[in-house]
Amino acid sequence: MSQRVLIIDDEEHIRQMMRLTLEAAGYAVGEAQDGPEGIKLYGDGSTWDGVVLDQRMPGMDGLETLRRLKAGDPSAHVIMATAYASIELAVDAMKLGALDFVRKPMTPEALRNSVAAALAKKIERPAVAEGSGTSKEEPTSSGIIETITLNGFEILDEEVSQAPNQRRFLVVGPDGNRQEVLVQIDEEPVGYVERITRRRLPPESSFWTQEARNLLSDYLWSEGKIPPTGKLTIKDLNPDKLPIAERWSGD
């Protein structure tokens, strides 16, 4: 029996493109033009294997729709589709239980990869208090995948390499294959932070670990693939990050 995917998006041509892409891959597909209609179609979650949910919709946006879907079915497999991803949005969506972000406009391959990767993940339902009929935990705090994925790629915990100006990350692709990516930290951004903030955050600082992860995330988001060379380099720093660097209290 085909897996069933519900598309919730206010743009008809986007829904049609996603429908055709997923049907060509063997999925059975339903459509909803906004959050309330999507929640109504989803029902109790027993007949839908996954949801592709647009973030920017008039009225009820994607995050609110996600919250209501997960409140009704904590095990719902939800993929957020957006052209406006940010760290803050990713964190909020992850807390609410989203499994992946896929970039709009998307290629058919990126959509298929993201859906396949999300549906393959297991989500445990929250424990239910005996005799109460209610969960012991709020639905939004249960079944969350700790590391959100982008375009079907998941970044696992990093390892600091032998060199203090390098970070190694393990990236899992939509096909399940794992590949190491090395992120190099140039001296120029380190010196830039020191000149402007008058404090030195050496390359081994956890600040640069976070920046390395952000750089890799941005690449996976914009390119939808692992760097061909397996390497990336932090060559500069966005000035907006300087207040963070100035207050950074990690090692």
Structurally, the number of domains stands at 2
What is the gyration radius calculated from CA atoms?
20 Å
- Annotation, overall tally of beta strands: 11
For the record, the CATH architecture of the largest domain stands as: 3-Layer(aba) Sandwich
Binned, the helix content reads 25-40%
Percentage beta strand: 15-25%
Under CATH, the homologous superfamily of the largest domain reads: Response regulator
List the helices and strands in order. EHEHEHEHEHEEEEEHHEH
Shape call:
elongated
The number of helical elements comes to 8
Overall residue-averaged pLDDT value: 84
Given this structure, which CATH class of the largest domain is correct? Alpha Beta
- End-to-end distance: 52 Å
CATH topology of the largest domain: Rossmann fold
Let me know the largest β-sheet: 6 strands, parallel
Low-confidence parts, pLDDT < 50 over ≥5 residues? 126-146
Oligomer: single chain
Summing up helix and strand content along with how strands pair, one would put the structural category as: alpha/beta
Strand order in the sheet with the most strands: 2-1-3-4-5-6
Q: How would you summarize this macromolecular structure in one to three sentences?
A:
With 251 residues, the chain is α/β, with parallel strands linked by helices.
Topology summary:
Elements: E1 4-8, H1 12-24, E2 28-32, H2 35-42, E3 50-54, H3 62-72, E4 78-82, H4 87-96, E5 100-103, H5 108-120, E6 149-150, E7 154-155, E8 159-160, E9 166-172, E10 178-185, H6 187-197, H7 206-223, E11 231-234, H8 242-247
Parallel strand pairs: 1-2, 1-3, 3-4, 4-5, 5-6, 10-11
Antiparallel strand pairs: 7-9, 8-9, 9-10
